[in-house]
Specification:
The complex is a heterodimer. Chain A has a two-stranded antiparallel sheet. By secondary structure, chain A is mainly alpha-helical. Chain A has 19 helices and two strands. The radius of gyration of chain A is 23 Å and the shape is globular. Chain A has helices at 2-10, 15-28, 36-64, 76-100, 106-125, 129-150, 158-185, 191-196, 203-219, 227-235, 238-269, 271-294, 298-321, 327-359, 370-373, 375-386, 395-402, 412-440, 455-479, and strands spanning 67-68, 73-74. The two termini of chain A are 31 Å apart. By secondary structure, chain B is mainly alpha-helical. Chain B contains four helices and no strands. Chain B has helices at residues 2-8, 12-37, 43-69, 72-80. In chain B, helix 1 packs antiparallel against helix 2 and helix 2 packs antiparallel against helix 3. The chains are: A mainly alpha, B mainly alpha. At the A-B interface, helix 6, helix 7, helix 10 and helix 12 of A face helix 2, helix 3 and helix 4 of B.
Chain lengths: 496, 98
Amino acid sequence: MNFLLYISEKTNPFQSIIVLSGAIFISSFFVISERRAVKRFLITLISISLILAFYLNIYSFISIGSFSNFLLSFENLQMIEVSIIIFSALNLLFFISMYGIDNSHFIKILSLFLFSTICAIFLAIARNFLLIFVTLVIFILVIFQLITALNLKIDRIRPYIMGYFLRPILTAILFFFGFSLFYGATDFKDFSQILQSEYISNPLIALGLIIFGVAVYLYFFLFPFQGPYMKLVKRNELSSNAVIWFSYFPVGIFMLMKLDGLYSFFIEKNNLYASIFLIIAFICILAGSIGAFKTNSIRRIISFLFLFFIGIFILNISMFSAGIITRLSMAWFNIANTLLMMFSFIPIYSIFSSIEKSTDSDSISNIRGFGRSNIYMGINLTVIFLSWLGFAYHIGPFIKYFSGTNFLEIGVINVILLLVIAIAFIFLLINAFRIIIQFFKKPLTGVVEKIVFPRFLYIYVTFFTLVILIAAIWGLLEILNVDIGIMNFKITELSF
Amino acid sequence: MGVFGIFYSRDIISVFISYQFIIISAVINFLNFSQFLYQSSLWDKIFIIFGITSLYFLMFCIIYYIYLKLDILDKEALYRDFKLFKITRSDWWGEDNI
């Protein structure tokens, strides 16, 4: 037992990575196999390894505590980020297995997928500039290979894949340039050290941050540069869309969260930066929500809503800089937003992609009357869509901040912030209710056709609905100050 | 020059050359700062080696994909009429018809 504890202590932040590497090692023996039994065995093995990695990640943190050296930093926030990455990987495995099991390269795809997960974990726990940069580049590379492998049979998509990945390459190159400027400003090799040092006001740091900002903007394909992303998502194979949404985007968000402290410092100092951030957040939110409203393609609606949620992350940074929320609240808001994205979009996409597969079209008219024919799924999805109401927690800090102050004393920037948040919330609700209304409308033909889903999908969606319901009830009870006395743990008072 | 090239070039080769300009400028930054500020420390060399290797590996994969997988017509389009930041109306308004 002591020996096991010794090993556990020595391999502290790497336990999940070791388990996933083991899974890659075993699957590499079966790479050329095309037998269905082998594929099923590997799916089971990888699922078990991901669940084990998820457990070990949390267990090791609770038992051994945080870890930090010159390359890595594994604390509360990183533990949660790694958990989110592994959780989304588990769901991606479900998508890849559902739509790609007949692919002759399925086992290679699984290995690539695991490798991308390991890169994402490294990026989340990386602290040193070198490790951050190298893992980011390798992550983009592996995602590129994964998407090309998933779309191997679709000829018409190839120029679009190429067009899409030319942008993340530019992101990586701009990061390289940004790090060179940081190196000029100070020889510190870590964002938090720079934040605490006296070199923080160096103009090279400001220039490097602007370049990082442009790089991140290009990484997320924010407005008006979303063209390649929209085109790829529209033509992509179903599971590769899930890879982009549930692996590529969250990793970018974690990358942005590494930089938010530095951004906040400069925004606080200079009103110009604050205005730029606000305008970007405003444009992203508005373009995302209006774009989603103007299209009838489900894939495009989800893509636009993802851009909308990225805008919310930028808004969080602006809110922190304007003094409306604290740094802890900002980290909590970002994590809560990521979780909200994951827990709502994964079940929604699992159902919508199944509908698309059975109808061969991604038009919103396909879901018309869906809630009448599949009542259980309809109710589940309605609950999931209503979970976006949880987004209203952004309004709480505003009310606290503005209560007791004269409206004229609030300031122009804060009024704009208030306006942004109001518009964002209204459009999000419009988009959610637009889909819910489609669910319960009468179908055009008058005949309600029931779509038969696999039984597993029912359990899968029910799990997400239950998690959302429990979180909602728990949060509501805490807000209303009702103590049910089950757990000595408050969901609204988590801190990092 | 790199940024100018990325925005104004009309073929994929120029885009890649523009990328290289930015990479080279970053390398010059690293080497100069190391030489004049930090007494030729080893850190910049390590960063350059790892950074350049991973970046070129990524770019190599994309170029290899273009040469191996793209049709002749698509390749022609890349050499004659390609813009990295092409903005069309269908990207954010209405439908994108395939």
